[in-house]
């Protein structure tokens, strides 16, 4: 069992937080590939492509070669799109973590640390859609330290912060491929309240969906109330 510590983000954590985010998202890429191949529109496109190759090729070796080229190009395209997503987020709230979280009223960012190394992260900001909700963001745990309750502890840290700050609920979004995260949220008491397809042409094509979850905090008579 890792004897980790959860503490508030410091500027010295900047590169470690960004590196952990990049490695965590890249680990999902094989799962993204499998998800894409299961989509009807992609399966139809592959079927049509294979049929054309069979018609145009006069040898089995040429057919196999072109098939391999088609698969490699498809994977490279998908990898490029995935890297663009990573870069987009690195240029969003993770570009200036201190300004996005530490200096923002009602927001905070935490890291889980073990032996001087950042092994987990989570952030929280006031929701753009409800003044009474806090949004949980950037939950991530290094793959070597998963299964030890660190993600759960990071979530509880956000819950406590929300409670003390006067929020009544917590919301978050997680993608269709992040099944382990969805299981964690449900175990913690989150409920699914909506879905949306990522507003990108390719994402719409493959129906890449974001699930919105909400957690209702238990009311406390001595808790301060948020100001609308």
Which structural traits does this protein have?
alpha+beta; elongated; 8 helices; 7 strands; disordered C terminus; seven-stranded mixed sheet; 228 residues
Please provide a written account of the structure.
By secondary structure, the protein is of the alpha+beta class. It is about 45% helix and about 25% strand. Strands 1-2-3-4-5-7-6 form a 7-stranded mixed β-sheet, with helices on both faces. The radius of gyration is 21 Å and the shape is elongated.
Give Rg in angstroms. 21 Å
Number of strands: 7
Q: Based on helices, strands and strand pairing, what is the structural class?
A: alpha+beta
How many alpha or pi helices? Answer: 8
Helix content: 40-55%
Uncertain regions spanning at least 5 consecutive residues: 223-228
Oligomer: single chain
The neighbouring-strand order within the major sheet is 1-2-3-4-5-7-6
Major pleated sheet: 7 strands, mixed
Strand content: 15-25%
> What is the CA–CA distance across the termini?
43 Å
Mean pLDDT, all residues:
91
Q: List the helices and strands in order.
A: EHHHHHEEEHEHEHE
Identify the overall geometry: elongated
Short description:
This protein is α+β, with helices and mostly antiparallel strands.
Which helices and strands occur, and which strands form pairs?
Blueprint: E1 5-8, H1 14-26, H2 29-37, H3 40-56, H4 60-90, H5 97-102, E2 108-114, E3 117-126, E4 133-141, H6 150-165, E5 169-175, H7 179-188, E6 191-197, H8 201-205, E7 209-216
Parallel strand pairs: 4-5
Antiparallel strand pairs: 1-2, 2-3, 3-4, 5-7, 6-7
Helix pairs in contact: 1-4
